Amino acid sequence: MAALPKRIIKETERLVSDPVPGITAVPSDDNLRYFHVTIDGPDSSPYSSGVFDLELYLPDDYPMCAPKVRFLTKIYHPNIDKLGRICLDVLKDNWSPALQIRTILLSIQALLGAPNPDDPLANDVAEDWKQDEKRAVQVAKEWTEKYAKSKEIATTSTTEESV
Question: Which residues carry out catalysis (predicted)?
Fold first, then answer.
């Protein structure tokens, strides 16, 4: 395997030494271009109680092209499809080599807080969002409860069971 570019090493070190609040990105032991990511749902969003698993991969031509990112946790969101693919401008046409992994992850977290049904990837969800936003938000909350391990559960200790 080719040596990892200095840029990827620096970005990885910064993610570890100066983590983004509510986001973790840990490189895989097998492939340092592949990251296991968790993003906490933003407060005051339908996703606020959830912790979402994602995968991020840095292709060989990174940073000249965008990282590949997708949700592994099932989510009800107009800009994220059933396969976990994300419709986000900085992952497509607005990618710039000046952007970094942390910037992309912050943009994804912001997208959770501001769904955009006018630029959908999941057309059915976008239609629901446009026709009855209140109901769509309720479904998003239910899916978050069901599929995204909640922050409360993730931080609860299991020592009570040893009584």
Answer: 87
Q: Is residue 65 flagged as an active site residue?
A: no
- On whether residue 66 sits in a domain, the answer given is yes
* 55: pLDDT strictly greater than 70: yes
- Selected catalytic residue, list 23, 25, 87, 125: 87
Tokens of 154: 């993730």
Answer yes or no: are the C-beta atoms of 33 and 58 closer than 8 Å: yes
What CA–CA distance (Å, rounded) separates 76 from 140?
5
Residue given tokens 């607005």 in the structure block: 94
Q: Which residues pair with 108 in a beta bridge?
A: none
Domains of the chain: total: 1
Domain extent at residue 129: 6-149
Q: Dmax over Cα atoms in the chain, in whole Å?
A: 56
Q: How far apart are CA 122 and CA 84, in angstroms?
A: 10
In a domain, 120, yes or no: yes
pLDDT bin (cut points 50, 70, 90) of residue 155 is: very low
Task: Count other C-beta atoms under 10 Å from residue 21's C-beta.
Answer: 7
Identify whether 163 is part of a domain: no
Residue 42 lies in a domain: yes
User: Cα 6–36–147 angle (5° rounding)?
Assistant: 155
Per-residue pLDDT tens digits for 111-131: 999 999 999 999 999 999 999
